[in-house]
Specification:
The chain is an all-beta fold and about 130 residues long.
């Protein structure tokens, strides 16, 4: 089993920045994709960003809605961060740290996850 714990959520104003962090424990995740998904009120959970097991030397993936504003980084084999700039009210959601233990993220990654943390709330006021 993989346990994921997020931190860094909060209430900010439109245009502000925020950084989310996540630490994994339990089963090692060093060979797997790590990333983030989010769920806004009344909407389905959606993919936000992911980074391969190779970290800064590997592939990253972003949803079109956050590309150019969010940056994902893998600080160690078991930690991942999401730097969010130029936040918009539509970024308001519960953000979940996530892992896909079925893929390393270099080839054939389908932007899905099979483990999630408990989530952290991000609220962006206009």
């Amino acid at each position: 089993q993989v346990q994921l714990v997020e931190s860094g959520g909060g209430l900010v104003q439109a245009g502000d920045s925020l950084t989310l962090s996540c630490a994994a424990s339990g089963r090692t995740v060093g060979n797997f994709v790590m990333g983030w998904s989010r769920q806004a009120p009344g909407k389905e959970r959606e993919f936000v960003a992911a980074i391969s097991w190779r970290g800064q030397f590997g592939r990253t993936y972003y949803a079109d809605s956050v590309k150019g504003r969010f940056t994902i980084s893998r600080d160690s084999a078991n930690t991942v961060s999401l730097q969010m700039n130029s936040l918009k009210p539509e970024d308001t959601a519960v953000y979940y740290c996530a892992v896909d233990s079925r893929n390393g993220g270099e080839t054939g990654y389908s932007r899905t996850f099979n483990y999630w943390g408990q989530g952290t709330q991000v609220t962006v006021s206009s």
